[in-house]
Structures are given as C-alpha cells and as structure tokens.
Amino acid sequence: MQVKKYRAATMAAAMEMVKKELGTEALIIETREVKKKGIARWFSAPIVEVTAALEEETKEIIKPQNVAASKDPYPSSTSNPVSEIALLKEMIDDLRKETALQSLKNDGKETGSIEPLSTIRSKLTNTGMSVEAADSILMELIYQGVDLRSAQSIDVGIRQALKKVIKVGVPKQNKKPYIIFLVGTTGVGKTTTLGKLAAKYHLVNNLKVGLITIDTYRIAAVEQLKTYAEIINIPIEVAFSPEDYAKSLKRYVDMDIILVDTAGRSQNNLIQVGEIHDFLADEKPDEMHLVINATTKLEDCSSILAAFLPLGVTHIIYSKADETLSHGTLLDIMQMSNLPISYIANGQRVPEDLVLAEVDNIVEMILEG
Predict the structure, then answer these.
(1) What angle do CA 291, 331, 156 make, to 5 degrees?
(2) Sheet holding 236-238: strands in order across?
(3) Parallel, antiparallel or unpaired: strands 287-293 and 257-261
(4) d(Cα 215, Cα 183) in Å, to the nearest integer?
(5) For residues 76 and 60, what is the distance between their CA atoms, to the nearest angstrom?
(6) pTM for the whole structure
(7) DSSP for 68-95?
(8) For the chain, domain boundaries
(9) Nearby residues of 177 by Cβ (< 8 Å), 6 or more positions away
(10) Any long-range contacts for 264-267 (C-beta under 8 Å, 24+ apart)?
C-alpha cells in the first residue's frame, strides 16, 4: 500500500494531484489546513494537505504442485478485505500519533489553539504531575481531535483523558478470612488508616474483624492500634515473628476480615523492606495496600514504588490528602504502578476521613486541588 501526502493551494488542486499520480482508486485518509512556517505564514493563506493511500497490486505467485500441505508464511492482505481494513486503521492511527507528536513539538501552532500547548502543559504540571504525565494528556487531546480553540473543549478533553487512565476500587471479598496488609514508609499514616478500615468493616459493614500488628519496632504504634481495637471492640494480636503471625492466623480462622499493620520501612533500605517477605511465606494476603503520603515528592514516589511493589502490592492508598492542594502526582503514581487507587485518607477522624476512591473525585482532586 502506498501512502503519500500532497500539498496545494486549494483542495481541488490537491485532489487533482492525487488523481494524477495515484488514480481514481486512491483512498483519502486525511485532509487538513497547514500554515506555512516562518514569516511567510503571516502574509499568506494556509495550504491544503491531503493524505491518500493506494493498494498496490500483487503479482500472482506460482507455487509448486506438490506443496499442498504447506502454508504461505506471508499471506497477502489483498485476499482478505478485513485485513485491508485493519491495516488501513492501523496506518491512520499511526498518522494521528505522528500528527500529535508534531503538534507538541510545534507547541500547537498548526492547530490554531486558543493558547499554546506549553501553557496548557504548565497548568497541568502546576497540579504536581510530571511533564511526561502532562504530555501524555496533551497527546490524548490532539489525538482525539479536541478543539483547542475552545477552553471548554480543552477542559472536557482533559477530564476525559484522565478518566481513561484512572483506576479505582477494591475486589469483592470472596473468601473467609480475607487478609489485608498495609505497607509503606514511616509516617504515612498506616496505623491510623488501619483503624479506619477496621471501624468501616466492623461498625458499618457488620463484619467480624481481627487486627494483627507486626510493627513491634514502635511501642507507640502497638499502643495506638490497641486503643483503636478497644474502642471498636475487636480483638488484636501482636506478632513478634513469622511464627507468632502464623499462630494469630489460626486463632482468627473464624474472622471475616484480618487487617495486618506492618512497620514503616524506608524505600532506601531494601533489607528492611524485604523482612516483610518472611511474614508472607505461609499465606499470602488477599490484598496488599501501599500507603503513600500525598505530600511525598514525585521522585520519592518512584523509588517507593520500586521498593515495595515486589512485595506483591495490589492497591494504592493515598493518605493525608488534606495536607496539600496539589494532587497531580496521583496520575504519575497510577501510571508508574499500573495499580488502582483503593482509598483516599483525608484527615484524622476515624472512620469518617477514609473514602472509597472514585474516578470523578480523583479527577476533581487533580484539577481543582
């Protein structure tokens, strides 16, 4: 298949060029106006660019008579209209991506946007997201043909682009007992979040909940969790070793939910992070939530994910959301981890300040702060 671009002063002239070179069987893929570059663009009208394609004829291949059992390893797409359509769609897709990339390089000048793409990029990065994440949204805007001359269209387009990549929710708890681990670095609010989850499951969902803490490095953390357990009226076990943990699981065999608190570990100390593996040997948790503080710097988020994901993390809990108005890093976290956001923790109240993540809410957090 031949694919060529033709430029002329008018559409009629461009179509004549297509007809003359490719013939009347040519397929028009895309037409657009292109402004000339440099000072000349100020004094002249835009020119028309037409992208056309023509399927090349294939010569008949004479095969030996005694190879009926063999198959042609390179079947011609011309024998299958479905393959032709699929190939054409792929080519159009590539052309759109190429156009989007070129528009980013040209800062959107050829699109006649209401404001340069660099301005839109700056507004996105001001939310805290990286330039790479912002450019992925801009690429989607251009690729989907969003009208960049309309501020309303840009806003709607950005929201739709975000919704395409945001993942939220937790799976259905289809076994008993259902084990949930919370992991993360020091000071991110794991113990408080665990207390909120315990209150939610026991007081709101009326489930039998048991707490286990393997965070025996901080006496304050153990006492805090014991206080939560006493207030909520649920049992708690302290496991100093994997053997203690295994015994606790046996004592909790009739529970609906088992929540496990772990010691905070620096992402820079992989040996300490790896110690959690010892508690996973006998029975892996059904969910493992990595708690990330909303105020964590983007570069630190990257190293935290690299350190903890190998443990078998299944979800992200975004904690202390009330301590910042810039939530753009959420997009980077989702793109880097490819994991759903399960909960948003936005205060100290138990259990009120823990909400199930929803796509629309996360979009609003990122764009509005």
Answers:
(1) 140
(2) 236-238, 209-213, 257-261, 178-184, 287-293, 315-319, 341-345, 354-356
(3) unpaired
(4) 10
(5) 10
(6) 0.70
(7) TT---SS--GGG-HHHHHHHHHHHHHHH
(8) 1-57, 86-165, 178-368
(9) 210, 249, 252, 253, 254, 255, 256, 257, 258
(10) 264/184, 264/185, 264/186, 264/187, 264/188, 264/190, 264/215, 264/218, 265/183, 265/184, 265/185, 265/186, 265/307, 266/185, 266/186, 267/185, 267/300, 267/303, 267/304, 267/306, 267/307, 267/308
Task: Please tell me the distance from the alpha carbon of residue 12 to that of residue 131, in angstroms, as a whole number.
Answer: 41
- CATH annotation of 178-368: 3.40.50.300
Per-residue pLDDT 10s for the chain (369 aa) are 677 888 888 777 877 888 888 887 777 777 777 766 544 444 456 777 888 877 665 444 444 454 444 444 444 444 555 666 666 666 655 555 555 555 555 555 544 554 567 888 889 999 999 999 998 898 888 888 888 778 888 899 999 999 999 999 888 888 999 999 999 998 899 989 999 999 999 999 999 999 999 987 777 778 888 998 999 999 999 999 999 999 999 999 999 999 999 988 888 888 888 888 889 887 889 999 999 999 999 999 999 999 999 999 999 999 999 999 999 999 999 999 999 999 999 877 777 789 999 999 999 999 986
**What sign has the CA pseudo-torsion 117, 119, 121, 123?**
negative
CB 228 within 8 A of CB 197: no
Q: What is the spatial distance between Cα 344 and Cα 125, in angstroms, rounded to a whole number?
A: 21
Contact 345, 196 (CB under 8 A): yes
Q: How many CB atoms sit inside 10 A of residue 96's CB?
A: 17
End-to-end CA distance of the chain: 49
How far is 91 from 97, CA to CA, in rounded Å? 10
Closest CA to 203 of 351, 343, 357: 351
Distance CA 284, CA 249 (A): 12
